[in-house]
Amino acid sequence: MTSKPSVLFVCVHNAGRSQMAAAFLAHLARGAIEVRSAGSAPAESINPAAVAAMGEVGIDIAGQSPKVLTFDAVESSDVVITMGCGDTCPVFPGVSYRDWDLQDPAGKGVEAVRLIRDEIRARVEALIAELLPAHA
């Protein structure tokens, strides 16, 4: 791993789970980890329920936009975390792959998305403790 670890969050639409995870990691790691997110089939816009749920914890993701998954993004990451994108994520040697089994927030209200958000935050906090033991 480089001096500054890099993490890529991948879900199908890059409109909910991966956006929330990237926002939490960027916010909680305070720049100590390079953060990216992408989707195998990006949506047109960010899930409004995800925007609302993140806004409740003081993180604004309204200005984000779904991005397409690229080989370069995967290859240049130390850790790739998939969230329901199946086998669409390319595999490169030296990259650590993890799959977070999280409910898809698509089509759900803010109440349901809050639970997903809180699960993502807990997993991101554990990831930070693993990648930056001095931060824990």
Give a structural overview.
- The protein is an alpha/beta fold and 136 residues long.
- It has one domain: Rossmann fold.
- It has a four-stranded parallel sheet with strand order 2-1-3-4, covered by helices on one side.
- The two termini are 18 Å apart.
Offer a quick outline of the entry.
The chain has 136 residues and is an alpha/beta fold.
Shape: globular
Low-confidence region ranges? none
Structural class: alpha/beta
Total domain units: 1
* Rounded Rg: 14 Å
Fraction of residues in H or I helices = 25-40%
Q: Which sequence of SSEs, written as H and E, runs from N to C?
A: EHEHHEEH
What's the CATH H-level superfamily name? Response regulator
Measured between the Cα atoms of the first and last residue, the distance is 18 Å
Itemize the secondary structure elements and their pairings.
Layout (H helix, E strand, L loop, with lengths): L5 E6 L5 H13 L4 E6 L8 H8 L15 H5 L3 E5 L12 E4 L10 H22 L5
Parallel strand pairs: 1-2, 1-3, 3-4
Helix pairs in contact: 1-4, 2-4
List keywords for this structure.
alpha/beta; 35% helix; 136 residues; four-stranded parallel sheet; Rossmann fold; globular
